[in-house]
Structure formats: C-alpha cells, structure tokens
Design brief:
This protein is of the alpha/beta class and 182 residues long. Helix content is 38%, strand content 19%. It has one domain: Flavin prenyltransferase-like (Rossmann fold, 3-Layer(aba) Sandwich). The strands form two sheets. Strands 2-1-3-4-5 form a five-stranded parallel sheet, with helices on both faces. Strands 6-7 form a two-stranded antiparallel ribbon. Strand 1, helix 1 and strand 2 form a beta-alpha-beta unit. Helix 1 packs parallel to helix 2, helix 1 packs across helix 8 and helix 4 packs across helix 7. It is globular.
C-alpha cells in the first residue's frame, strides 16, 4: 500500500448488499484512495474475490493464508498499512464480534490490531437491525470510538421495505473523507 495515498481497508461481510462494494470501491478509487479488500468467508457467497480484485487493483484477502509467500502475519500487515478500516456492508454477526472483541477471522483480527479509525455501515433485515442485541452492540462500538453510518429505509432482500438498507455510497464516501481529513 502506498503511504502517499490514503489506504482504505474495505471489509465486505455476508449481506446481499455486498454487491454495493463494487461501486463503493470505484467511488473510493476515483476520490484518490487506495482500496484493499478483506472478504469474509460467507461474503464470498454474495460476491466473488475476482470482481473485487478487478475493481480494487489489489489481491483480495479472504483468510490468513490468502497471500501466498507472505512471511509476516497478514492481519498485522493489513492493520499497519491501513489509514482507515471501513466495513461495508457490516452484518449483525461482524458487529457483534467487534463489539465484544472477538477475533476469529482475518477481518476481526485486523480491526483489533489496528489503531486506524473504524467505520461501520450496517446492512441487514429491519428486525435484525432493530433487535436489542444489535442496537446494544452498535452502542458499544460507538462508545469505543467506532463511527457508525446508520442504514437507511429501503427495499430489503426479504421483499419488505424498512430500515436496514445500507447507506448510500455518497454518504459513506463523505464520512471516509471526513475521517481521513481529506
């Protein structure tokens, strides 16, 4: 990752909104950011690493063994080289893990090992989003300095309309620029 350019680590988690990461990567790169993607295991059911790699111009990290021949711990190198960690879409699962300090995959380990600002854009079913446990986890993250970009009201994959649709990319990009002081 280039130190002249602000380096964004984009975590993509298991949500139908994972497809929105494609336009988000494009928007971030057009704004002058370098984007490295970490794709959680279940997110790969929604979008392929090849698509994200083609758009970001960098190899996608899927697990601790993604980068063949890398002798340094992947999560530590990612943490050191990231100016901001953006998780979009952020599933209820990843939000819960981060809120409680669980580190069972490369994305959560990287987040825990990093001093960079953490920005989370939730996307999920309205009932999941409004659930008291999810709301408590989001509050816990905010209390610990994590910036949350709330979801918006929109069409959900279950064919309902409600809160839980990932925020617009424009809003996410503006928040990234603000946190990176660009």
């Amino acid at each position: 990752m280039d130190k002249k350019t602000k380096n964004i680590l984009l975590g993509v988690t298991a949500s139908i909104a994972a497809y929105k990461a494609c336009d988000l990567i494009t928007d971030l790169r057009e704004a002058g950011f370098s984007v490295r993607v970490v794709l959680t295991k279940d997110a790969s059911y929604f979008i392929t690493p090849l698509t994200l790699q083609s758009l970001s111009g960098q190899e996608v990290v899927e697990d601790f063994f993604s980068l063949a021949g890398n002798v340094k711990p992947v999560h530590i190198e990612l943490a050191k080289n990231s100016d901001l960690i953006l998780i979009a879409p952020a599933s209820a699962d990843i939000i819960a893990k981060l809120a409680h300090g669980l580190a069972d995959d490369v994305l959560t380990c990287t987040a825990l090992a990093s001093d960079a600002p953490l920005l989370v854009a939730p996307a999920m079913n309205e009932k999941m989003y409004l659930n008291k446990f999810t709301q408590g986890n989001l509050k816990r993250l905010e209390q610990n300095g994590v910036t949350i970009i709330p979801p918006i009201r929109g069409h959900l994959v279950c064919m309902d309309k409600g809160i839980g649709h990932i925020a617009e990319n424009k809003t996410i990009l503006e928040t990234v620029k603000s946190l990176c002081k660009c």
